[in-house]
Amino acid sequence: MKEINIFCFGFGQVAKNFIKKLSIEKYNINLSTTSRNKSSKETFKSINYNSYLFNSKKFDQNLVVKLKEADHILVSIPPENQEDLVVKNFSKFLESSKAKWITYLSATSVYGDHKGEWVNENSKKNPTSNKGVARLKAENSWTSLEENNKLPVQIFRLSGIYSNEKNILVRLKSGDVKLSNKKDNYFSRIHVDDISNILFKSLSKFKSGEIYNITDDKPSSSKEIILYGAKILNIENIKVDTIKSEMLKNFNNESKKVSNKKVKNYFNYNLKFPSYIEGLNYIRDNFM
Fold first, then answer.
1. What pLDDT sits at residue 252?
2. Residue 64 placed within a domain
3. Pairwise CA distance, residues 39 & 33, whole Å
4. Which range marks the domain in which residue 205 is found?
């Protein structure tokens, strides 16, 4: 049985799904995580682990020992106040850690608006939202750590994440969906299972200093996704509404098609859900 000593900064849906993947692959998992609220002993998928307090104001000093012992480190927490909190608080400890795999999960918001054109990892980064700007700053701080301190760091830029539990079908059934009256913008998405599968692939084919987009094959408009979801659920008469949320306004101000060629070619990976069509059909058939 393979052993892995992994420290997860943040333990949301992506980190949990990755740990589930490791468990399915019969890994013996030594797990530590962080929580914004308090330190505690927890259990996930029959794995007992320690969750350590860590937020922008303070952290449990006990986590430093576990961090230094970890051979794998997954960072899935977003920046706060335009800073990456992990780099800010733990860069010195990371330099003296045993880590051979450090993965920072970023977002495709770093590209900004490209008027519906294709972008890849070498495209211009011109984020327009505060979150996109913060993500790019965080990426740069991790890149600097990798270059200046020879730390083993890779970065994955994730598109909009959906899962079997959190998706447009659930929102449609609850009535929590309205069609935007704004022009169609292209954006990309990815099922959380595909993220976990690629993270798993990277354990055995890690290359420090690389950046990859994790996204599906079919960039589409929000309207297209909603109408398809409504069709397969036999829902009619979706309301049209103006966009009031500032976050959604920023989201709809950006239009781009994100390429996944690099990640698929390097890891020799075929997507489990190449588009929202396969993903939503699977969710409807198995979870609705």
1. 61
2. yes
3. 9
4. 3-162+190-216+258-272
Give me 95's structure tokens. 């330099």
Question: Does pLDDT of 255 surpass 60?
Answer: yes
Burial class (CB in 10 A: 0-12, 13-18, 19+), 206: middle
How much is the pLDDT for 58? 95
Taking the C-alpha atoms of residue 110 and residue 257, their distance in angstroms, rounded to an integer, is 13
Taken in order 228, 232, 236, 240, the sign of the CA dihedral is: negative
Number of domains in the chain: 1
Residue 283 lies in a domain: no
In-domain check, residue 241: no
Bridge partners, residue 72, by sequence: 6, 101
pLDDT (tens digit, 9 = 90+) per residue, 266-279? Answer: 999 999 999 999 99
230 CB contacts (<8 Å, ≥6 apart)?
A: 172, 236, 238
Alpha-carbon gap, residue 84 to 25, rounded angstroms: 31
CB neighbourhood size of 80 (10 A): 13
pLDDT band at residue 254 under the 50/70/90 scheme: confident
Q: What's the CA gap between 278 and 281, in Å, rounded?
A: 5
Q: Residue 205's pLDDT is what?
A: 97
Q: DSSP secondary-structure letter at 119?
A: E
What span, in angstroms and rounded, lies between the C-alpha atoms of 280 and 167? 8
Q: Which helix (H) or strand (E) holds 34?
A: strand 28-35
Task: Inform me whether the pLDDT recorded for 283 exceeds 90.
Answer: yes
CATH at 123: 3.40.50.720
265 sits in the region (left: phi over 0; alpha: psi -120 to 50; else beta) called: alpha
Question: Does a structural domain hold residue 122?
Answer: yes
pLDDT tens track for 141-181 = 999 999 998 899 999 999 999 999 999 999 999 988 877 76
- pTM for the model: 0.95
